[in-house]
Amino acid sequence: MGDRELLKEVLEIFLEDSEPTCEEIARAVEAADREALEASAHALKGACANVSAERARAAAAELEEMARGGDLGEVRRALARLEARMAELRPVLEGFVRSPTHAQESDHEGARGR
Amino acid sequence: MKVLVADDDRAFVRLLSARLQAKGMDVTVAQDVVQATIAARRTRPDAVVLDISMPGGTGMDVLKRLRDSAQSALTPVIVVSGSSDPALPEQVMKLGADAFLPKPVDFDALLAALESAGSPPGV
Lengths: 114, 123
Known about the structure:
The complex is a heterodimer. Chain A contains 5 helices and no strands. By secondary structure, chain A is mainly α.
């Protein structure tokens, strides 16, 4: 498997997993559930770090810190920042995932009989 | 070398598995505490890469179980975590971890830790 192919697979996983995680974060904010918010924001922070999505990672980290005993008064604004970062990020990653794989890697795929 | 990767972060696991397999390592994946405990018993790994934040408990629970079992008491365990808790590295080392690496993980450092900790005696 080429690097680009592996990267696409990892980005696909990120796109699949981050959406439900964002929904969990929103539900936890709505319910003011610190434990659920900390767990879901921590998961998203790690997922964003895997794909070097620094601004989304920072927004998730901010929510995780709030959940760990910080002030929840600003939590809705922090959630809005995270959602904005994710809305910026998704189309970029989706575009990369949909882009054609390099011709040389396609040849390798053919050689493996796929 | 058989490595058990216990982490529910699928993208991290995919990236790490690719790196380990490229080095000829045999990778088993577990995505929660129960799976990790069962996989450790069944596959008898030469080393474990263990995340702290996992469904069904924490990596600390897995680490304690590994150390309490004669079969895995000496199995090298490398703990990885994205936690900002400054006390965590010391806590996991006290519980018997062989190394702690913060996330995002430096894969080269992780490979080096695995290769040094997980080499069977005489190899």
